[in-house]
Design a protein that fits this description.
- The structure is a single chain.
- By secondary structure, the chain is an alpha+beta fold.
- About 30% of the residues lie in helices and about 35% in strands.
- The longest helix is centred in the C-terminal third of the chain and has 20 residues.
- The protein is globular, with a radius of gyration of 25 Å.
Length: about 300
């Protein structure tokens, strides 16, 4: 009986707020990931890959130790853990947007504190204890205590002197009537690799393939494909409207007086672009989503 092949790579997927968006990213990159609510183990439709879920906060430690060959986590937790890993690439996505997240120092709106130096002798609550400690040391501000917060940090802002918490849109801080006085750290999601795995030729080749497809899926998130038929007499006018980085694809049609044009554009410009194309003679306009855009 033929034995199934042994997986070449173990990938760490962040459990929690990044879990769904990470699995969706792999799906658009071409990898189907099967999860179970009762297990931390993941199966991929690629027999060379299996997966395991860790919290983003601990991912870099497990990748550094070789429990996983590679994983996805935030730059903030790599810094917090002081992990020695190879940061292969940035994957600028998060649970809500594609913007970086910020760890900010915040106080209640009614607080007299206006700047970090005003917190000398104070107590700060945060999940990012090591990083916040270094932040105040670098500023030569002697706080009384930086205590670990086990979640729901915003509600503690009126029990201590300040909090250092992560924000993506600022809505939670605003809802809790908190005021930001400084940014401690800006972070994006990273694909990180164990150094020994990166030094292994077979693993490195596979890891590079995965990174290429993930970056392609990231590039495609804010873009759409656009197809249309254009009268030859209107081609120059239509091309002048297209904000393509490279020349669009132009193909002849069976009818001599018409040309097929295809291009990739930013999703944000599509709604303004399509009416202009129609006014300039384009017909049969089709827009379609993209899974991957490989530079």
């Amino acid at each position: 009986m033929t034995q199934p092949p042994t997986a070449l790579l173990r990938i760490g997927i962040p459990k929690g707020s990044l879990q769904d968006s990470t699995i969706d990213l792999f799906d658009r990159a071409g990898y189907r990931v099967n999860t179970s609510s009762r297990s931390y183990m993941l199966t991929f439709d690629d027999p060379q890959i299996n997966g395991i879920m860790f919290r983003a906060q601990e991912m870099s430690r497990y990748v550094e130790d070789g429990v996983a060959d590679l994983g996805i986590t935030g730059h903030d937790w790599i810094v917090e853990n002081g992990s020695d890993v190879h940061e292969l690439c940035e994957l600028a996505y998060s649970k809500a947007t594609a913007r970086p997240v910020r760890w900010v120092l915040a106080v209640p709106e009614e607080s007299a504190v206006q700047k970090p130096e005003d917190l000398a002798g104070g107590i700060i609550a945060t999940e990012l204890v090591r990083t916040v400690t270094k932040y105040f040391q670098d500023k030569n501000v002697a706080v009384k205590k930086i205590e670990y917060s086990y979640g729901a940090t915003e509600v503690k802002a009126r029990l201590v002197d300040a909090i250092a918490d992560v924000t993506e849109t600022g809505s939670s801080l605003h809802a809790n009537k908190l005021r930001v006085i400084d940014t401690v750290l800006t972070s994006t999601t990273r694909l990180i690799v164990n150094h020994d795995s990166w030094s292994n030729a077979d693993k490195r080749r596979k890891i590079e393939d995965i990174a290429l497809l993930l970056r392609g899926a990231m590039s495609a998130r804010q873009k759409v494909g656009l197809k249309m038929n254009v009268p030859k007499a209107q081609l120059d006018a239509v091309l002048a409207l297209l904000p393509s980085e490279r020349s669009p694809t132009i193909s002849a049609l069976a009818e001599d007086n018409w040309i097929a044009v295809e291009v990739i554009v930013d999703q944000a410009t599509e709604r303004d672009l399509v009416p202009g194309l129609s006014r300039n003679g384009a017909t049969g306009i089709i827009t379609y989503p993209l899974n991957k855009v490989i530079p």
